[in-house]
UniProtKB/TrEMBL annotation:
InterPro entries: MTH938-like_sf (IPR036748), NDUFAF3/AAMDC (IPR007523). The lineage of its organism: Bacteria, Fusobacteriati, Fusobacteriota, Fusobacteriia, Fusobacteriales. This is Uncharacterized protein.
Amino acid sequence: MIIESYSFGRMKVDGIGFDSDLIIFPEKIVSSWWRVQGHYLQVRDLGEVLDYQPEVLVIGTGYSGCMDVADEVKKELEAAGIKYYIEKSSRAVEIFNKIDSKKKVGAFHLTC
């Protein structure tokens, strides 16, 4: 899947527009992704991602980077052998689109 555009609160993926946080898997998109503590990403917020076991996970922390990522998330990803990037969402989009892997996943906070 290719992210065609991103702006505050809006993302277009393969011709479909989204206006809520989302997780992009190779074969599906989980829209309206919400975290237990909103702007604080925890391991339990990534259950489906961890079950999928991607090669790479790109985390977009929002337009201004307001979503914090718990250290436990990083440790869990490292323990699972998942390469990860954590960036403001605009930069995360660029990284996601450049990664050449059939098992990449993107988790994007679209606002803040």
